[in-house]
Design a protein that fits this description.
By secondary structure, the chain is mainly alpha-helical. 67% of the residues lie in helices and 0% in strands. The protein is built from 8 helices and no strands. The longest helix has 45 residues. The relative contact order is 0.18.
Amino acid sequence: MSVVKKKKWKRALSHLRFGYEEVEIIREIARDTAPDFQAYYENFCRTRGINIAELNDRHRNRVEDLYNIEKAIPDSEHTDKTEIHAPDDTTIALHNKNPVEQDDKREMTADETAVHEAFSKLFKKIALKIHPDRLRDMSPDEREVKVSMFQKANKSLEDRKYFTLIDIALQLKIQTPKNYDEQTRWMKKETTLLEQQIKKEKSTYNFLFSEAETEEERDQLIRGFLLQVFQIHVE
């Protein structure tokens, strides 16, 4: 195997790992910002004489039908747990599904099959070392660490987050799969999907609110929200 091929594989792995971490961090920021967005939204409407409850009741059926969700708009009793896109995005949708979850009904590509088979074999090697049934002679503390590691490896295989299996294998000094060409192609494809998801997550109102640095920016964001959801202009 050429040195260049190994370095390209490492680079693809680094980009994929970063993509997963970025999506998770952005989601956490958006989730943690939801109460602040809700409070600012309520205050903005209250100071301008906008009745949120009335707006919600008047538009509830239209919004629920449009977005096919039970409750899509924040009101005075619930924090905004939805992820509605900013005005410059023509689609409004919830993003609860992992962007790189595989559709079980879809046939895997040759690369996906090769990669999954390789990492399934790697998981079996990991299980031979740290399966809970093999840890009876360890101290409670050491066993707890290994059991946690095994559970993480098992979930990583199920979720097809193979980079975690690589990290665990390296810790256990187990040789990782060498089908670098298939892995690199697969990782590039997954990274592209993650980049698309990151773009969508960054366009949610909660995240955009966390990025707003001035009151003017926050007010403009709320105006955009009211325009998009309720189709009303607010000066």
